[in-house]
Every structure is written in C-alpha cells, then in structure tokens.
Amino acid sequence: MLRAWRAGIDTYQEPVVYMRRDCAVCRSEGFTTQARIRLTAGSGSIVATLCVVDGPWLGHGVAGLSEAAWRALHPQPGQWITVSHAPVLDSLSHVRSKVYGHRLDAGAFRAVIGDIAAGRYSDLHLATFITACAGDHLDLDETVSLTQAMIDVGERLDWGRDMVVDKHCVGGLPGNRTTLLVVPIVAACGLTMPKTSSRAITSPAGTADTMEVLAPVDLDIGAMRRTVERTGACIVWGGSVRLSPADDVLIRVERPLDLDSEGQLVASVLSKKAAAGSTHVLIDLPVGPTAKVRSREAAQALGRRLVEVGRSIGLQVALRVTDGLQPVGRGIGPALEARDVLAVLRRQADAPDDLRQRALRLAGDILELGGAAPPGAGLRLATEVLADGRAWAKFAAICEAQGGLREVPVASHRHVVEAPSAGRVTSIDNRVLSRAAKLAGAPRAPAAGVDVHVRLGDIVRAGQPLFTLHAQAPGELAYAQQYVNARPPIFQISEAS
Question: Where are the alpha helices (DSSP H) in 233-330?
Fold first, then answer.
C-alpha cells in the first residue's frame, strides 16, 4: 500500500501513476515503466500506466497520481491506496490479430470495445487498435460489428416517439457549422432533434467546441432530457452523457495521431446517433480536393457504407453531397464560427450567405425526411422559419435551457495576410488554412482561428487582405505566421481575364 499524492501533471486524460524506482512495492512486484497498474482506494478502482521516478521530487511510500488518475480514482490526499498488477487483457489478442491483417468477428469487437470503455487500455494499446483499423482495414461486416459494440457499452436513450431526427457532417471543411442553424430551424417546426456533437479531432473546431462558446455543452443525461422536453432539441457534447463512451476514448487518441479512417468514422458517427435515440439521420458529405472526402466517387462509397451500416443497426440514413472546395462562412475556430452563426440567426445584413444557404438546404432535407414538410417543400419552410425569427427564438431557448447564452470572446492578437498580387482567387487549400487556425490556438483557445475575407472567384488587388490570423497568445500568433510564411500560398491567385 502507498499513500496517494496529487502530482499535478497533465497526462492528456490518460491515468498515470508515478512510483520511485527504489519503492518497496515497485521492487517486490517487479513493476517497470509502462506497466499497467491497478489502484484501489476504498470502493474505487482504476487501471493506470506506471512511470518510474529516479528524482527526489517524489517521496518514499507515495504514489503520485496524474490529474487524470486523481479525477478518476477520487482519493483523499494521503489516503492509503492498494497497488497491484492489472488483470491480463485477453482482448489484446484480438488487437494483435488485427495488426496482422486478420478479420475480427462481433465477439472480438465486443471484447475490445468493452475493455476500452472500462479504461483498461493504455494509450499505446489504443493507438495500436486505431492504427490497425485505419485506412480500408475494416470491411462492411466489421464496421457493423464495431458500431454495434460501441453502442452496447454505453447508455441508449429512448425518447418515447417514433420519429427522432439528427444530422452529421463528416468534416474536413473549415467553418461548416451548420448544425447550430439546422437544429433550431428543425425544432421550431415541431420535430425532435436531440443533437449530441463531438469536439474537434483533426479540425480547428468541432460543433461542441463552437456551441460551448455560446452555452454549456457538458450536460448529463438528466439535463439533456430536460432541455429536449422544454425546447424539442439540444446541442450537447456527446462525451458528457456517456453515449458510445468508447468513441470518446478513441477520439482522444485519434486527435494527436491525426487519423480518422472510413470504418472508424462510420462507427463513430452512427454509434452516437443510435445511442442518442435517433431514428432518421441526414449525413452531409462535403467533397473537394482538400476536404476530407476528395471525390464524388469517394463520397458515394462512404455514403453507401453509412446507409448500409445504418440499416443494420436500425437507422434510416439519408445523404447530401455538398461543395467542399472552400471554407464555409468567414470564421474558422470556435468563437469566430459562433459569431457567424449568430449573424445568420439574427438576420444581420453582413451574415455569411453561403453558411445560411447551406444550412437551409440541410434543414429542408431533414424537414422532409421527418415528415414536417412534403417532398420538395422543405427548403421553403426552413427559409420562412429563419426569416421570421422563429429559428433565433428557438436557439435562444435552447441556450437558456442548457445554462444561458454567453458572450462571444474576441482574440487580443491578430495578423493580416495580404494578397501578394492582383488577380482572381482560383483555389483555397482548406487543410493548410485549418492547420494555421490550429497553430494559432484553436480549438483550445476559443477565440483563436482564422477569419477569411475572400471567396473563390473574387477579384483581388495586391495588398488586399485575404485572411486574418487570430490568437490569444503572441507566441501562438507568431508560430501560425511562421507556418503560413513557410508554405506555398494558401490562396491561389491567377491573372484576371
């Protein structure tokens, strides 16, 4: 037994325990760095990764707990905790099998995902599983099995009604924050839309990151239910309500790996939708050379898998393939995207029209899918609801039910990137633009990101602003500037004819 000590070390959500190399427990049990250790305090127990310490900062008879381990175990300072070997994980044999290219059956996925959701995998194990499944290494049956396993390990909501709608965008398109517009439009028309959203994986902002600028998103299931009962909808972070909890663990490791493969994408999206109690789901597939989906053919293949997996788990999935050639709206980053959303909802004259039109088309599709509008009439109804203020009133009500509407923060450091020559904007590199926004601090720093000032086809003059970098720290702004300066031009400008 050792005494618990809060080490105050951020280990990126992975529980880590620190023990001295000359610790009697460490020596007697043969513990070495990277060993998996079970820690028990009272009735609580977790599995953590061991780091062995040689320096004097850790006292004798003490187990130092990282912030993630301390939050998970909840010991009292100085409380005696029992330290023992973690149980052997039989499911790791399935991970090794997948590494060598073998197919996994439903039972194997249930075992792996069950251990992941229970916190038994280290980040090394998680990275191995994610990498083994990346690319095209999951076939249709495996994707169905992975999706079902991810649903089964968490909560599954039942709203007591036959029609519950939802939407999702596969991502890769900066600023595409249509959900915050679609949800209030659809809910204002009487459909139920309990929207659970992800935080950013490889982008400068996820829907939950942007919504969190405007209202709390870390709601538990009780608060989520109350919000939906009051307003017909919500926009919350899926990780706070334990819907497909294994997905949130996988996303945590996918983010630094910068991996988001097709099979895992389908399982991630549809497991969350099914767990949230949805019956009908619209998937937005932006297509462009620097979007996540590069071609119409790739969109069709991904769309087929989404529809087929959805059918296998009891979801009706509809698709809309959209333009992914350039960013949507002006802002890239949580606060800048939230600003654009509010401008559209409040019907401001300077609101980005591309964001408005894209959201209206998607809302119209859902209204038809959910039976709130007859075929061909959804777009007209959505436009009316936005124009007469019902969408803004519904959004304000949703924010109030989730904890109150907040002010949008503004970055204190900015740098304008100007056109090097006159001409017409012929292409925009979405990926590099997103990377610049991330280096400026997004989404961790909510006000950080990029403000885009021109669109494809625009005629620009030399010295005209193309985009502005926003940062909350001067060092991050300088880092983003260096990245932009070292890259080929993000905006291609050709001589205007």
Answer: 245-257, 262-275, 296-312
Length, in residues, of the chain = 497
On the question of pLDDT at 449 being above 90, the answer is yes
Q: Does residue 443 have a cis bond before it (omega within 30 degrees)? A: yes
> Average pLDDT for residues 218-236, to the nearest whole number?
95
**Average model confidence (pLDDT) for the chain?**
94
Which string of DSSP letters, residue by residue, matches 329-353?
SSEESHHHHHHHHHHHHTT-TTS-H
Read off the pLDDT of each residue in 336-346 and give the average, rounded to a whole number.
98
Write the pLDDT tens digit of every residue in 117-138.
998 999 999 999 999 999 889 9
Question: For 257, what's the count of Cα atoms within 13 Å in the CB-facing half-sphere?
Answer: 18
Q: Is 260 considered catalytic here?
A: yes
Q: Report whether 16 contacts 68 (CB < 8 A).
A: yes
- 3 state DSSP class of 364: helix
Residue tagged active-site, from 260, 284, 340, 451: 260
DSSP structural state of residue 369: H
Supply 284's token pair.
């937005």
What is the reported pLDDT for 497? 64
Element (H, E) at 143: helix 140-152
Quick check: helix, strand or coil at residue 82? strand
Average pLDDT over residues 156-163: 92
Closest alpha carbon to 441 in 339, 342, 332:
332
d(CA 310, CA 282): 11
Return the structure tokens found at 77: 């300072």
Q: Is 376 exposed, middle or buried (0-12, 13-18, 19+ CB in 10 A)?
A: exposed
The radius of gyration of the chain's CA atoms, rounded to the nearest angstrom, is 24
DSSP 75: P
Q: How many CB atoms lie within 10 A of CB 27?
A: 12
DSSP string covering 393-460: HHHHHHHHHHT---PPP--SEEEEEE-SS-EEEEEE-HHHHHHHHHHTTTTTSTT-EEEE---TT-EE
Contact 209, 197 (CB under 8 A): no
Can you tell me the mean pLDDT for 434-441? 96
Q: In angstroms, rounded to a whole number, what is the distance separating the alpha carbons of residues 7 and 242?
A: 27
Please give the Cα distance from 262 to 89 (Å, whole number).
27
CA 477 to CA 470: how far, in whole Å? 7
Q: Is residue 237 a contact partner of residue 251, using CB atoms and an 8 Å limit?
A: no
Distance in angstroms (rounded) separating the CA atoms of residues 400 and 162:
27
Instruction: Look at residues 150, 169, 177, 155 and name the one whose alpha carbon lies nearest to residue 225.
Output: 155
